[in-house]
Amino acid sequence: MSPRTLPGRSDHVVVVGAGLSGLCAALHLLGTGREVTVVERDTGPGGRAGALDLEGPSGTFRVDTGPTVLTMPELFEEAFAAVGERMSDRLDLVALDPAYRARFADGSVIDVHTDGEAMEAEVRRVCGPEAAAGYRDLRAWLTRLYRAEIDTFIGANLDSPFDLLVPDLARLVAAGGFGRLGPQVARRIPDERLRRVFSFQSLYAGVAPRHALGAYGVIAYMDTVAGVWFPRGGMRALGAALAGAVTSAGGRILYGRTVTGLDRRSGRVDAVRHGSTGGTGADGDRTACDAVVLTPDLPVVHRLLGRAPRRPVPLRWSPSAVVLHAGLDRRVDTQVGAAHHTISFGRKWDETFSEVIDDGRLMSDPSLLVTRPTATDPSLAPDGRDLLFVLAPCPNTASSSIDWPRVGPAYRDELLGVLAARGWGDLSGSIEVSQLVTPADWAAQGLGEGTPFSLAHTLAQTGPFRPRNLVRGLDNVVLAGCGTTPGVGIPPVVLSGRLAAERITGPSRRRRADTPTPSSRGTTARDRRVPTRP
Length: 534
What we know:
Layout: E1 12-16, H1 20-30, E2 35-39, E3 51-56, E4 59-64, H2 74-81, E5 93-95, E6 100-103, E7 109-112, H3 116-127, H4 129-154, H5 167-174, H6 181-186, H7 192-197, H8 217-226, E8 229-231, H9 236-248, E9 252-254, E10 257-265, E11 268-276, E12 285-288, E13 291-294, H10 298-305, E14 320-328, H11 334-337, E15 341-344, H12 350-358, E16 368-371, E17 386-394, H13 404-424, E18 431-437, H14 439-444, E19 477-479, H15 490-505
Parallel strand pairs: 1-2, 1-13, 2-9, 6-15, 13-19
Antiparallel strand pairs: 3-4, 5-8, 6-7, 10-11, 11-12, 14-17, 14-18, 15-16, 16-17
Helix pairs in contact: 1-9, 1-15, 3-4, 4-5, 4-8
């Protein structure tokens, strides 16, 4: 049975939000001949994957305010192809090798390569032959998960739990997708360090590895098998490229306009009201429409709809994060910070998840993601300078009562001290310009419970049990973004835009080829074409 589509006319669609999901939805809609208007509260595209220019004495540091890890670029290729464009004409993507550098408390280092042979050699060098054999088994398992999930569960609209009853379900069950991720990884990998490398991703899905469904190993597949990429010009280039394709295809984007209401008649929204962001409301406009795609975070969506849907179990939100953007007056010591992405693990592991998720406390022995985009694109900072993005998972505002305006600056100094103790040197004395983002700031942006990672991927909030992209009581409204299906992260968010468009246009006929795996640093989308849809 085909997934439900919206009834009635859909000639003109208003998309609320020019983030990645909204822009991808717009491209898929434009590709089927719809007229599309995108309404965005900010002055530029990208949404959560936005841009911030920090001015220092030496010049401009070009900061990405949102996600820093790009995987599955072929999903963007699909969106560009919908309007007859090629991604490589708008984006210059670099395949990162290593995808990550993992540094551990005992001083050991593991470079995470997405090429299977290179990674097996790295595992054998650091962890021994038994671990290398375990890695081969784990890689095969992650690939099986991906193939069982990507089209049927992640990349499909589901109307009820019965939609899961397909042949891929049996394959997913047989692969251990409904077991627990941590034990599935542990039974294949004898080395504790490697277990962390292949399961830490579940924290960003809001669940500890020991509790996460094995199916969420697909996130590790995307990171460690499919490959990690970076667009020259920074992650902000993603939104700019998508927005350029939208306007070239005839779409209209209204920037600096905050949606203030939805006009309804006979169970349908027939217009979207909006005014200047930060204005008094006296300059309000009304854009008539046949259908609407809402992409803001769920609290904003519920406010626009005037209600939140009833659920037997209350929504549970993911942990949040403290992020420090730091423009340095020097380059980082290459022995420690040479990689684009570095995961700095503390000694504690299970305790870290308990502290952040269960206890609502800051990590006593932090594990951190440090991204140095200037390792790949030095133009993001003035000559001779570096730009760092330091992310520390932390409790969301529902699970803790931390006074972030007071605690934030002290925690910033603590994190810099942790990095100094782990070999990064005295970064605090080298910071030319910086910005700290805490859960209080995320909450001020309208993000639920102050977390950029939206709803946790618990069993009750996975697949057909996650808030649907259809809106009960309104025949022509559909949702996209990380609060709805399929979930959190750039690939699911991009997919959510296509799934929202398909609720309006009907399912597309395309099916993806297997994800290409980058084999060397410096490979670009111009050199290695990412498969397009037929």
